[in-house]
Amino acid sequence: MATQRILDFLATRRPDGPCLVVDLDIVEDNFNAFRKALPDSAIFYAVKANPAPEVLRLLASLGSNFDCASVAEIEMALEAGATAKRISYGNTIKKERDIARAHALGVSLFAVDCVEEVEKVARAAPGARVFCRVLTDGEGAEWPLSRKFGCVPTMAIDVLMQANALGLTATGVSFHVGSQQTDTEAWDAAIADAKYVFEALADKGIVLTLVNMGGGFPTRYLKDVPAASAYGQAIFASLSKHFGNRLPETIIEPGRGMVGDAGVIKAEVVLVSKKSDEDANRWVYLDIGKFGGLAETMDEAIRYPIVTQHDGERTEPCVIAGPTCDSADVLYERTPYPLPISLTVGDEVLIEGTGAYTTTYASVAFNGIEPLRAYVI
């Protein structure tokens, strides 16, 4: 995952402290792979994954649309060259004044998952298009996204009926099968739910046109994952099975799958120690941890590949932790991480697959440690 361009940058620039380096060539390759895998689906890049201006400008130039979670992200997408018509306000939890601001900027497509949110959109963005998010179980995902977002399909019918009654355009249904979804068949049940909502609304004279199939497309960490083409084939098969020849307009929202493997974090070993002479595991402390950008190691959900200059030598299990004075800043303890015995203080390591959800999770100077610096090449 550390491309030669990234390695050359680190060797030449020698940046001090932990930093993320993102290779735009990989981002472009990933965009083209998604476009080829699902040629009839509009790509709405999930800005929250990595909002670097260089990434957004590249994707805007390639024709990407943007899934935004806040007014700030909407403004970033506009600044990068996207038009308001290419932006979706995809967060189901929005302040009414933020809806109004987005609408004033020209955004007309909003996510909802309850009648109360519909009422806010109707007041702040009259006439807007809305799609209702339905719950999925997230089985097969490393980072499930159920419960907090979405409603059951039967409630989605009521939500969209209320949207129609309040003068909004009930446009369709969305779902998210869970981040880092490794099961290519995970979309099938959610597409069936979407079809159920489509039919129920059609019976009431409301014609839906859009299925937003969300993100979930994975990046490779320690295990191989299916290629974009495999997801495309499975999703198209499910759409055809449930909708027949009358396929709806579709959207996908890749974030991790777009930028995850394009980035590498350079970090440094600060300390190597044991807690007792009998301790089976060494503790390896890095100059980056959960609060510096590696929040997705929470519950050890994401296990990043870690490359060292001693790879190939004998290893032993290690607990990996960050540098802050917070006991929660431990990355891998439940399942210790095998690292070379010769790894020592001052050694640099590369944490691969870190192009997504690292800079955006980095804390603002917790313990006086600066947020994760990033370079886009």
Classified by CATH, the class of the largest domain is: Alpha Beta
- How would you classify the helix and strand content by structural class? alpha/beta
CATH superfamily of the largest domain: Alanine racemase
Number of domains: 2
Largest sheet: 8 strands, mixed
Backbone shape: elongated
Q: If you consult CATH, what is the topology of the largest domain?
A: TIM Barrel
Distance between the termini: 14 Å
Work out the strand percent: 15-25%
Helix content: 25-40%
Tally of alpha and pi helices: 10
Supply Rg: 22 Å
**Low confidence ranges:** none
Q: So, CATH architecture of the largest domain?
A: Alpha-Beta Barrel
Number of strands: 18
The average pLDDT is: 94
List the secondary-structure elements in sequence, H or E: HEHEHEHEHEHEEHEEHEHEHEEEEEEE
Pfam family, one: Orn_Arg_deC_N
GO molecular function: ornithine decarboxylase activity
Family: Belongs to the Orn/Lys/Arg decarboxylase class-II family.
InterPro entries: Ala_racemase/Decarboxylase_C (IPR009006), De-COase2_CS (IPR022657), De-COase2_N (IPR022644), De-COase2_pyr-phos_BS (IPR022653), Orn/DAP/Arg_de-COase (IPR000183), Orn_de-COase (IPR002433), PLP-binding_barrel (IPR029066)
